[in-house]
Design goal:
Elements: E1 5-9, E2 12-17, H1 20-45, H2 52-58
Antiparallel strand pairs: 1-2
Length: about 60
């Protein structure tokens, strides 16, 4: 595993080197967060809800 490194210009951080597995984990966390907020937005906007059983009947499942 590669140790995370921060590259600086003077005192300002400008880049990070990190392990690819850690990068992929962080991307997954970001996607999960995005999905969560998207679901909250849909729930907030949608005032008419249908039960799961009613939806299955409508879709003939």
């Amino acid at each position: 595993m590669i140790k995370t490194q921060i590259i600086k210009e003077g005192r300002k951080s400008v880049a990070v080197i990190l392990d690819y597995q850690e990068y992929m984990r962080l991307k997954e966390v970001e996607q999960d967060k995005s999905d969560y907020y998207s679901a909250l937005e849909v729930k907030r906007k949608n005032k008419k809800w249908v039960s799961h059983n009613d939806l299955k009947k409508t879709l003939e499942l």
